[in-house]
Amino acid sequence: MSLLLMMVLTFVTGVVDAVGFLALDRVFVGNMTGNIVILGMAVAGADDLPILGPAIALGTFTLGAFVAGFVLRRRRKEWGGAVTVLLAAGAAVLAGLGVAFLVPAWADSWPLELVASSLTAAVMGVQAAVARSLGVADMTTVVVTSTLTSLASESLVQRGAKGLWNRRFAAIAVIFLGAVIGALLLVFGPAVPLLLAALLTATVGAVGHQRLFTPAKVAGA
C-alpha cells in the first residue's frame, strides 16, 4: 500500500512540475536539480531565463522539507498523524491555488504566478520529506535521476530485460505520465491540474491514514 501511495505522489510531482514550467515562468516546483541548472544558465545570461522564480522555489522547497522533517523527526518509517496532517495541509494549499486561478482578475497576474510556484514548491518539499521519512525504497516522489541510475546500473545489469519491470521503472513512468497529464490539462488553465494534484494528495493522505496509521506509543508503556 505504501508503494502505491508514493507512486500517486510521484504522479502529482509530474503534474505540478508541468504546471510550474509551462505556466509559471519556467519554474520547476518539484525537481530542484532543474531549478539549479536554470539558475546557472540564467546567471550566465542565457536565453533570458528567469532568476527570481527558480531561486524562491529553491528556498521554499527547502523550507517545506525542513519544517516537515522537524515535525517527523521522532517517527521515521511510520505513518503517524503528522504524515496525514502534512499531506492534508499540502492538499489544501494546492486546492487554494487552484481556486485562485479560477478568479479572472487574478488568473493572469504575475504576483499569483510567483506565489503559486513558491507555495507549490513548498508543498513538494513537504511531500519529499514525508516520502523520505516513510522510507519506501526507490520512491522519493520528486527525483528520478538516481532511480534511473539504479534501474540501468543495477536492475538491468543483474537481471537483463527482466530487470526493467520493477518499481524503479514504475517511478519513472509515473512521473512522466503525470507531466503528460499536467501539460494536457493546462489547456483549461493552471486551476485544473492544480486541483487534480490537490485531490490526489488528499486521497493519499486519507487512504494512508486509514490503512497505514500507527498510533504513537505511550512513554513507559
Number of domains: 1
Query: Beta-strand percentage?
Result: under 5%
CA distance, first residue to last residue = 28 Å
The biggest beta sheet is recorded as: none
Can you offer a commentary on this structure?
The chain is an all-alpha fold and 221 residues long. The protein has one domain: Growth Hormone, Chain: A (Up-down Bundle). Helix 4 packs antiparallel against helix 6, helix 4 packs antiparallel against helix 9 and helix 7 packs antiparallel against helix 8. The protein is globular. The mean pLDDT is 89.
Secondary structure blueprint with pairings:
Elements: H1 2-23, H2 32-43, H3 52-72, H4 81-100, H5 104-107, H6 110-134, H7 145-159, H8 167-185, H9 191-212
Short description:
This protein is mainly alpha-helical and 221 residues long. It contains nine helices and no strands.
